[in-house]
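Hi C.,

You asked whether I'd gotten around to modeling the 97-residue construct. I have! Everything is below, sequence then structure, no commentary in between.
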Amino acid sequence: MKPDRTRWATGKYLADIFKYRTGIGDKTTILGAAWRKELGHLSAHWELSGIKQGIIYVKPRSAAAAQELQLRAASIVRGLNKYFNKPWIKGIKVSAR
């Protein structure tokens, strides 16, 4: 008995469907590159830990880095949204270390 291969899907096909349905994929790739470009040497002090409903969660390396992130959050959001056709980043929150 031969398996029915008409229902099989490739990994690329499944990944493309997942990206399309969730909106994840290209946005996160662009965000990672834009994060490093916009922040320069400061990106070494902050690690992207997640994204949920337009809010970026960041792990700071120290308390001083957390405070600096909170002070620069609005300008960082404006700078990051420049890289997308539609601005989707709403804010930045500090996540637990």
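If it helps when you're writing up: The helical segments are 11-22, 26-39, 63-81.

Thanks,
B.
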